Amino acid sequence: MIIDSHQHFWNYNLEEYDWINNEMTVIRKNFLIDDLKETISDTEVTGVISVHARQCLVETDWLLQLASENEVIKGVVGWVPLASKSIHAILERYASSIFLKGVRHVVQEESDPEFLLREDFNRGISLLHQFNLVYDILILKHQLPNTIRFVDKHPNQIFVVDHIAKPLIKDNKIKEWQKNISELAKRKNVFCKLSGMVSEADFSNWTVKQLQPYFDVILETFGPNRLIFGSNWPVCLVGTTYKNWLDIVKSQILQLSNSEQDLILYKNAESIYKLLYH
User: Fold this and answer.
1) How many other C-beta atoms can be found within 10 angstroms of the C-beta atom of residue 92?
2) Start-to-end C-alpha separation, the chain
3) How many other β-carbons are positioned within 10 Å of the β-carbon of residue 105?
4) What stretches in the chain show pLDDT beneath 70?
5) Which residues in 13-162 belong to E strands, given as ranges?
6) How do residues 9-51 score in pLDDT, each as one tens digit?
7) 155 in helix, strand or coil?
8) How far is CA 182 from CA 33, 61, 192, 239, in A?
């Protein structure tokens, strides 16, 4: 049994998915529920957490509808306007949903270097705990120092770092990222997804050996109790197949006990996101 804690769906169009650049043409098409089911059919993956790919409530509603109709979707990490003055009412509207498990904002695209420290955004974050919602942190590696300050404002909130905070794997740079991710990992309310690494490397020339130092840092700093498997499908397809990424992660945790491997592969996701089986 494996839970994939990070995958996306989309009906592709150039306007809404302009971040899919010319190097990523392989994912310039639709990726929908039947594509996912076919992709995981020859793996041990039995459930997924669907994460928003657009920052709008329409996207969140769509994912929740998909979850209600498809048993494979165990939970949703959606988007809500956290900086809005109406955020409490918006969260109350979603409180009855059994599938909304967390929310996320694409902080990596924010031009304001102090975005994570803004009062309006943090006011929204401070409400998530009472609604039993996880906050997924999507940042680039240079945003880690402010992320540490941000997390420290919310000691009772559960945070999950997406894509190991996107180090510059393509350039084999690790020192600054290692220092900051290690500091962030000292916060016991912060978890991390083993996801998104291939898309931060050279799509056509990356190797497992190149990824190894980053795996080593994450495994050492977070440990099996705070790591979660994620595929980042279909974005991962720019550099690998779904099954190959899963096999790489499984090979990286082979030195752990069976119970520790189970924590990473599904048990941590179940407990952190409070997954339901329907």
Assistant:
1) 11
2) 16
3) 24
4) 277-278
5) 45-51, 73-78, 100-106, 134-138, 159-161
6) 999 999 999 999 989 999 999 999 999 999 999 999 999 999 9
7) coil
8) 36, 35, 11, 27
